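Input chain follows. Return structure tokens only.
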Amino acid sequence: MTRKEFIKRLAYLSLAGAFPALYSWQIEPFWVEFVQRKLPVKNLPKILEGKKLMQISDLHVGNRFDWNFLIESFQKAQQFKPDFVVYTGDYVNKGTPEEQKALETVMENCVLGTSGTFGILGNHDYGENWKDIECSDSICEILKDRGITVLRNAQEEIHGLNFIGLEDLWSPNFYSLNVMSEYDSSKANIVLCHNPDACDLDIWNSYQGWILSGHTHGGQCRIPGIITPVLPVKNKKYVSGEIDLEDGRMLYINRAIGHSFQIRFMVRPEITVFTLTQT
């Protein structure tokens, strides 16, 4: 091999090695996937058959990526004209005043359901140490100002669909047994719960139905079937997508639209568009 051929091959190898890093930094974090799937709900009123429910999770507004991407994604999401929209926590990264101000700008463009819009809080909405009640209250006010009903260990029924919202597992306000002890099994229920680890706690009062979660970001980087190196959950089977909990509960973990760090590999950001169906 001549010196010229060696340099040429070395250049090719360098480019080939640089592409995955460039892709995972500048392409995939901003390549949102609209996942469309059915959501069979027990006791769903016939009038809600075929209606659209959109889940958006983990915005993580902050300084770790260009959050204008979120606004652009919201504009795309509005084209689906969802009947219901649920936001499943972590609107900010650290909850600083600057991040809250940026969140106000982002949420001016938020997606609202034509029939109802609900939200819950995540651990990051309680500030950097996940204990800041004042921060969580401020974020709730921002969401309420944009027409989002925040469920804090509470439930609300609209058009025959009952949304049960749990506070975050790692927050000081996780008193979810209170609301779960009052749920009515004869209703069409959907639980919003940011951290899927809560599924393993004894708080569910024989609940039967769907739990919509976020928190994991799908690991952000993974090689399917081989490794998902970073998962902020105790139960490592809680990665993303649909999981049958085998007791009448079904869990869906959204991969998040935002990210804690601007890197994703084989875990595209997600907005989920469910079509409600009767069981």
